[in-house]
Amino acid sequence: MNVMTSRERVLAALRHQEADRVPIDLGAMRSSGIQAIAYNRLKAHLGIEGGQTTLYDIMQQLAQPETAILDRFHLDVLPLPRVALGLDPSRPRWKPWRLPDGSPALIPDGLEQLPREDGGLEIRDAAGHMLYRMPAGGLYYEPVYEPLADAATIAEIEAWQPPSISDAELAWLAAEARRLRATTDRAILGLTGINLYEGAQRVRGWQRFMEDLAGQPVMAEALLQRFADSACADLARYLDAVGEYIDIVQVGDDLGTQNGPQLSPRMYRRLVKPYQQQVWQFIKARSGLPLFLHCCGGIYPLIPDLIEAGVDILNPVQISAVGMDPVRLKAEFGRDLVFWGGGADTQHVLPEATPEQVADHVRRQIDILAPGGGFVFNQVHNIQANVPPENIVAMLDAALAYGNYDR
Fold first, then answer.
1. Cβ contacts of residue 51 below 8 Å, gap of 6+?
2. How far apart are CA 199 and CA 170, in angstroms?
């Protein structure tokens, strides 16, 4: 089989065709990447000197893989990311920072990480609201701002304005999309930042929103509709600006836990699915591009509904969660879904196994998920700070060597 470009390889996988080899992703979106501490250790292990560790996701402390890493591991996908928190899109500038382990990184120039009395850090917006908090000794930020926590009426929800893409960010996105299309043959994944269910949990408060779903669903539906309408308005501008330059459109909404769905299939179909379907079908009609959904957890009972609502690509394929047996997933949904993930378990195998065991695990996952195409190799969610660099190398090298379809 002739050697394909990265873009050709990814697009073949999305058409459920066997390419020359399985495409590989690391860091093309905010749940397929690598924590910055692990990234610095990986570079040191490989003897890669120089370069810059750039935190494009401050909350999860994710590093954007550099060209040396992209080339070393033959990675096939690049992100078109939304502008990072604290970055001025009209003049993006970065400043030096030290990660919790003392190793260097760059963060957005406009981002202020403020010390807390407990020894941790926090990030506030211009109005003084605490957006994110990192406890003393922590490795990540957690979101804490819930602007609709005290909303008691539908009118309060309808009056609230979800964050939207600024004209400056849209201009930056359009220019960056054109640059990527002109300078790389890697596939380009457009990260919209759109989520509805997670967004409602975030602004209302996780517990309050779940109580709304169960006890006063009209409040939950009003908030989901508010997010859906705002998302479609933003997406119209976004897709008009970048749609011709990207290959895939990514959205997110975590619906699962380790032990199964967060809500029953009946409640999902009645209260959540209609709003997701509204937005996802808008994306597909407006762009004609495949839809990539990031959705964690044991979501097996919801997968037929996700397909019906418009999902083409599922990530992260959390194989350690209840119901997410990859053999069954491939057999039941492999004709309708592309599995972008499931290539290596990040909860136990990557941090705890030997490199040889990691490689064996990767080969088993490829045997299950790769036949017939419809598979992009990626570990299950982000590589965490405690993963040995030897295991990262073993995983990605095994994916490249064993993912050859001529084998």
1. 43, 66, 68
2. 21
Report H helices in 15-153.
36-46, 67-72
Sheet holding 121-124, edge to edge: 114-115, 121-124, 130-134, 142-143
| 264/299 Cα distance (integer angstroms) | 10
Query: Which residues on neighbouring strands pair with residue 132, listed in sequence order?
Result: 123, 143
CATH number assigned to the domain comprising residue 320: 3.20.20.210
Residue 129 lies in a domain: no
CA distance 249 to 312: 10
∠ Cα 312 348 75 (to 5°): 45
Q: Which residue has the tokens 């990859």?
A: 326
Per-residue pLDDT, 56:
93
Output the six-digit token pair for 407: 């084998």
* Diameter over CA atoms, the chain: 62
User: CA–CA separation, 280 vs 226, rounded Å?
Assistant: 15
Domain with 198, as residue range(s), is 6-45+66-81+148-402
Residue 116 lies in a domain: no
Read off φ and ψ for residue 288, nearest 5 degrees: 70, 15
Confidence (pLDDT) at 69: 98
- Other CB atoms within 10 Å distance of the CB of residue 356: 10
Closest CA to 144 of 231, 84, 202: 202
Decide: helix, strand or coil at residue 315: strand
**How far is it, in rounded angstroms, from Cα 321 to Cα 318?**
6
How many domains does the chain divide into? 1
Residue 120 belongs to some domain of the structure: no
Provide the 3-class DSSP secondary structure of residue 336: coil
Q: Angle at Cα 22 formed by Cα 292 and Cα 407, nearest 5°?
A: 160
Q: Which residues of the chain have pLDDT under 50?
A: none
Type and span of the H or E element at 199 = helix 197-204
Quick one: which H or E segment has residue 162? Answer: none
Q: What is the pTM of this model?
A: 0.97
